[in-house]
UniProtKB/TrEMBL annotation, chains A, B:
GO molecular function, one term: D-serine ammonia-lyase activity
GO biological process: D-serine catabolic process
Family the entry assigns: Belongs to the DSD1 family.
Native organism: Methylobacterium gregans
Keywords, ordered alphabetically: Lyase
Domain called D-serine dehydratase-like: residue spans: 259-366
Gene label: dthadh
Keyword Lyase: yes
Stored SMART domains: D-ser_dehydrat
Name of the molecule in the record: D-threo-3-hydroxyaspartate dehydratase
Amino acid sequence: MADATGLEALDTPCLLLDEARLRENVERMRARLAGLGVAFRPHLKTAKSRDVARLAMAAPEGPAIVSTLREAEYFCEAGLRDVIYGVGIAPDKLARVAAVRARGADLAVILDSLEQAEAVAAHAARTGDPLPVLIEVDADGHRSGVAPDDAETLVAIGRRLVAGAASLRGVLLHAGHSYALSDPEALADAAEAERVAAVSAAGILRAAGLPCPVVSVGSTPTARFARDLTGITEVRAGVFMFGDLFQAGVGAVEPEDIALSVLATVIGHQRKKGWIITDAGWMALSRDRGTARQAVDQGYGAVCDLAGRPYPDLIVADANQEHGIVALRRGSGAELPDLPIGARLRILPNHACATGAQHDRYHVLDDAGRVAKIWPRINGW
Amino acid sequence: MADATGLEALDTPCLLLDEARLRENVERMRARLAGLGVAFRPHLKTAKSRDVARLAMAAPEGPAIVSTLREAEYFCEAGLRDVIYGVGIAPDKLARVAAVRARGADLAVILDSLEQAEAVAAHAARTGDPLPVLIEVDADGHRSGVAPDDAETLVAIGRRLVAGAASLRGVLLHAGHSYALSDPEALADAAEAERVAAVSAAGILRAAGLPCPVVSVGSTPTARFARDLTGITEVRAGVFMFGDLFQAGVGAVEPEDIALSVLATVIGHQRKKGWIITDAGWMALSRDRGTARQAVDQGYGAVCDLAGRPYPDLIVADANQEHGIVALRRGSGAELPDLPIGARLRILPNHACATGAQHDRYHVLDDAGRVAKIWPRINGW
């Protein structure tokens, strides 16, 4: 087969990244947040790639947020300076935090308990490093965080940090509940609830005479649908850069903006069952089945041709470790395409963070759909 | 806290492997299959580690089976010689197969269509390498394979291979349907059905004058419950080495034999909800929720203390990328243990293959539960 794109020459399964879509997704988010008058702090946990980070960040120094200390180390070695480790700090991780800070990065941590504040304050006093801290506030009962109206805990944490010579930088919230929504009005309401909780918590700290320069919120859906961000200083979002079927189901990205796909090869058929078997199983696609809870269940992914055009109703209906079972959506009237042994497909992922993590590099496609370069990515902790 | 085991000093989340349990699991399977008079071909797709392979294989040369060409390359570089690539071959993968064979390994491939046989025969004729092939036979409608009674296709594939100077080595089946069972009698019946299908397909080839020296079956559950393996030459199994909660739910392993766990640190609480938050989210545990379809749903994993003793009814009830939400099983009368910030836990995985793939090494525990060594593992294709 003639192949001017290089896609036929790649070993499969592997990860493809459409650079033009990535750039457009980033530009759209930047413009939107600039219009709302807030700074943008990209989350690097989806891409885990210095090349993607350079496109997503306003400057090589940041700002950005990461989900692991491995990411903090990797990005700060490449020049990132303004960064938050966005998972509640455990005391035994403070040595690694200090090592990154000692190399010049302004790495901040988050926490939501007085126990953690004690440990951080003791660390700051011992090392003389005024470690910056954001208090995690619970936007919607989804995960971690101090309740936004729990003035006693917020103020106790703030006072303990300041007394211990750590530096209180502000509050941070994540509207994780937005992932369960799909109606634009409900998403705008979730964004407003996140804003109100953030502003309320910041107000409590300030009323107690504590500093709160940063009021940080974010999730891809609320960043997309927020109507007003008065009182917010920065918004965090990450998965929007690549997009995925889950975020498309939420309505936070358009399906045609999804920049990430898995390249697969047809390795067999069970014709009586209408199955096309590929070499992209759950190891290549991830075990994520997030769309199973949405209005449209995309199986383990939606199947496209080599140019990235979806086949009507064709999904990865089931998967084993190294086998994907491609079939028409149940009840579909579409025709199963004729895809012989060796044919190549592109599969849009349920969840870009999970699918990306199964791979160690991106094969980056240029405007003509050609494999133009390789961008490595990291995994692990 | 005093810590003679080294577990308190590890960065979390990370993967722990109990070497004694691993050795016992391997010995038990070896003894069982020796008693049934068949050879054992360990599947290396779960561990993806040369150190584990050395323990699992009868000899450094094998036999073994792998799920990716990357595994074939990695293990053959270390001396493996007798190996099957156990996923239907795509023609464009033959160059990598040939490169491994050229370095001295007897790497065999599998296929289930005349199209693939044509490509393999053409490759064998072109290169002069009598590439060994097993015909994949469908044991139970689970995935790939020629129907065991489809004499026309079996013989056509066999003849095409032999005519093209490839070498027909036999038939291979995998009773994937056994994973959906849990009753020992039903599992023994699944093993017998797998055996009958294998012997039947081998008989069809032999009756047509074709060679079929190898009759290969296997899955951890059928290897555990087979009563009789007359006519079978080898059994393949892999996940039994580590075991996991899913296989325990099937009844194929005992919960106390599970050798793999994820070490996690407590990073927070939502006390009103009965939640303990850890730093082992789905990135460390995998997105696998296989036990959701079993009688006992283990969430994202079962929670144990540092010595590996399960806390009653304590599971990872939900997970975000880097957050595990630990809670009592719904309806439990057990008491939530007091686990302060910084406490460490061990989490038994739903699926060892999926959880292992999120990590790049095993921290290997000796008989005293001490971290004795590090075994690297590979991922990717």
